[in-house]
Fold:
Amino acid sequence: QLQLVESGGGLVQPGGSLRLSCAASGFTLDYYAIGWFRQAPGKEREGVSCISSSGGSTNYADSVKGRFTISRDNAKNTVYLQMNSLKPEDTAVYYCAAAEGCGRLPQKYDYWGQGTQVTVSS
Structure:
């Protein structure tokens, strides 16, 4: 069974950091671009970041540029999202998803994880 599993979410104070992980089982991530999305209550799912299959290309939403870093370790079949200088507006459920190439629209992605909650609050 093809699965993506996110981990690393939690409660953090403003200005703090978290590292999210997206691990694949049942398939190899080598040939997939991986995107991170987030969805806050009452809001649409939005793209946060994406990394190409080789890791040679990355992109970020303007709201997270300079604070978040996406990376991948294909040997571990895992993609990471390092989140620094977190703000209350970063609070959301974060999802990772796999696609043939990076794109802004969730519909482009074929496989999704179940999500991990990130809460930024004092």
Summary: DSSP finds no helices and eleven strands in the chain. The radius of gyration is 13 Å.
